Structure formats: structure tokens, C-alpha cells
Amino acid sequence: MIAGLVLLVIALLAIGVLIRGIHARHMQIWLGRYLFRRRPAPGPEPVHVMFCFVDHFEPAWGKVDLATQRARVDRWCNDYRVLASAHRDADGRPPQHSFFYPEEEYLEEHLDKIAALCADGYGEIEIHLHHDNDNEDNFRTTITRFNELLHARHGALPRDPHTGALRFGFIHGNWCLDNSRPDGRWCGLNNELILLRELGCYADFTFPSAPSDTQTRTINTIYYATDDPQRPKSHDVGVTVKAGGQASGDLMIVQGPLGLNWHRRRFGLVPRIENADVRRSCPPDTERVDAWIRTAIHVEGRPDWIFVKIHTHGTQERDMDTLLGEPAHAMYTHLEQHYNDGHRHVLHYVTARELYNIVKAAEAGHAGNPSRYRDYELPPPPGLANAPWRRNAQQRHDVEAAAGWADLEG
To answer: Is the dihedral angle over the CA atoms 337, 342, 346, 347 positive or is it negative?
Structure first.
């Protein structure tokens, strides 16, 4: 009898600790949806893997001096060329890095260097913003000014071929899209989704943000969010993007993988959160890469095109050896050796803009090789016009067109 009571007390204490741990990491927001998720059944066709690396790229992080900022940017521009040049996807493309550069940290010399790296075929520039207690007029002015500066001075951001408006991808600083932090800090705008749409944002790439309490209930999904300007965090839920469907709401939300990592457990028992963040403390080992693939984020109705969006904060010295050294080499090697055999998997390195274009092509009902839809809706920014891989892609397209292959869906 006493032994039974002791076991009951121990069990209740364990449950209490577990519940406390879940709430401490705000897992109650999303854990239920993760545990009861459904994965798509594999089909007979190879699975195309779109691999997208987005970066909260902050040279001034830590309020460092200009010399330190320069050293950070120079290392990226030098070492990333070496890293990416050693790898290729199924289309002959090197890994692509999407640099979400913070408006409030703008320095012309930094963007000139990053733009040159992108012009050589290694990525694209998008918009990152940290702000607090903002207002609508200031937000409009800030984004509009930065859009025009990036485009005119650095050859970044495409123009919409129908409207001529500049279009951009967005990552919100401090994870606080649409005023989503409970205390209201680091944003201030309950109508931010509406404002982003009106200013030309094609998609948000902020999430996942776990273990932050800004994390959404919706996980592992590409969806449309509709803003309620009277309430914060309107992107908490939305309408899943579907093949044969159409755009709705105010803004597309592109999420990266979120779940539990049982290979890296606290105290050998409790799984860590897998939130697709890459840094020294959570390197991109093979188990993580495999978990990202298994998450199989896709457009509903097109399960043979999956999207793996991972993220980092690329200019922190403690993480650069991971992001630019052997761990990153090992990650890309694993992707190329295990997810690019042409039969079970086909690998495509994509930028944020290209990911969006391929999502839109899937939504429109297209099938076959997603690589031909990299520029489906939004063209490349002007700074990429002469990128080496783009010239090679055009040559391949010309060969396919001459052979009558260009319009085949298989």
C-alpha cells in the first residue's frame, strides 16, 4: 500500500515537472498539433526537396564597432564563396543564402559586399526589421525607403511584372510579427500584415520562433493569414495553401520545421525543441537534416514538392565556424548524397523568392520539375541578371526548348 502511494506521488511529481517544463518553453501553444499531425503518404514520383536557408543577417549585432562589422561581413563574403562553390544541387546550383538585412543597421559598404556575393550567384537580399512601439506612418516610410534603397543602390528586390511595385520577403525582428509578443514590445502594429501586403511583401519567413511565446499555433505549414487590425498575432491560424486553390487573406506565411528532437535530449530523457535554427549550440547534423525532410512541409495536394526552410543569425562569431565551416559542409554533403539520387529525391537549393515562386506554381496546379518555376511569378532582382548559374540555366532551357521538352510536366 505504502509502495503504491510512493509510486503515485512520484508519478504526480513527474507529471508536474513535465507540465512545468512544457509551459516554461511555451510548448502548450503548438505541441498538440505536432503530436496529432498527419504526414502525406509517399507517391511513386521522386520527392523534390526545396532547401532554403534564411538568415537574420545582423552585422552590428551586439552593438559592435565598425571594424568588427567589417570583419564579419568580409568573412561571410570570402568563406561562403568557398563553402558554396564545393556543392551543387540537381540543377547545378550552389547553395543559396537569403540575407534578410535589418533596415536599422544599414551601411552602404556592407550591402555592397553582400550584393556582390549575390551577383556571383550565391543568394539574394531581403528585408529584416527590428522596431518597437511603432506607428503606421513611420512603418510605411521605413519600409518604402528601404525597399527603394536596396533596389536602386544594390540591385536587390524584384519588381512585380504586372504592377511595377517592388516586392520583398520579410523576417520580423525579435519574432514579433503583428505585435505578437504578449507584452506588446518590439512591434506596436496590430495591422502589420495588412501594411506588409500593401507595401509589397510577398511572404513572411519569420517562423518557427519556438521556444518564444510568439510562436503560432499553426506549425509546419505554408498558409495565408488574414489580419484583424483590432487584435495582435492574426497569423496564429490561417488558410493552408492548396494546389488548385487561390490566394486569400493578407499575407503568405512560410514556416520552417518545428517538432521534437529525440536525438538531443536534456538529461538524457527530455527531447529538445527542433526549431530549424542552425548555430554552434545546435549544429546541422545528419539526424536534424533527416528530421527536416521528414516534416515534409508542402502545398496541400502537391506532397512530392517539399520545402525545408531553416534559419540562423549569421554574423555572430561564436557560430561562424558552424555556418561557414565543416558542419555546414557536412550538411550540404548529406543533402547531396541522400536526397539527390534522382529516383527517390531531387534536391534544389532555392532563395526565399524562388521558394515563394515554386509555392505559387504548385498552387496553380503545376507539376513535374519545380526548378523551372523559380521565377514563376516574381522575376529575379536586377543584381542577379548575370549570375553564372542563371546563364547556365538559360542555356539548358534553350536546349530543352529546341528538343521540345520545355513544356513537358514530367
So the answer is: positive
| Nearest by Cα to 128 from 106, 95, 159, 155 | 106
Report the domain count for the chain. 1
User: Does a structural domain hold residue 182?
Assistant: yes
The model's pTM is 0.91
Helix spans in 235-374 (H):
286-295, 317-324, 326-338, 352-363
Peptide bond into 379 cis (omega under 30): no
Distances (CA, A) of 271 to 18, 72, 263, 366: 11, 33, 7, 38
Q: Which three cell numbers stand for residue 333?
A: 554533403
pLDDT in tens, 333-372: 999 999 999 999 999 999 999 999 999 999 999 999 999 9
195 occurs within a structural domain: yes
What number of other Cβ atoms are within 10 A of residue 276's Cβ? Answer: 25
Query: Distance between CA 102 and CA 57 in Å, rounded?
Result: 7
* Residue 200 domain flag: yes
Write down the residue that cell numbers 552602404 correspond to. Answer: 108
Taking residues 106-133, report their average pLDDT: 98
Amino acid code (one letter) for 124? E
pLDDT for res 275: 96
Per-residue pLDDT of 181-220, as tens digits, reads 999 999 999 999 999 999 999 999 999 999 999 999 999 9
Residue 337 in any domain: the answer is no
Domain of 299? 92-309+348-403
What cell does 49 get? 526537396
Task: Report the alpha-carbon angle 313-316-321, nearest 5.
Answer: 100
Find where cell 503583428 sits: 178
d(CA 386, CA 112): 16
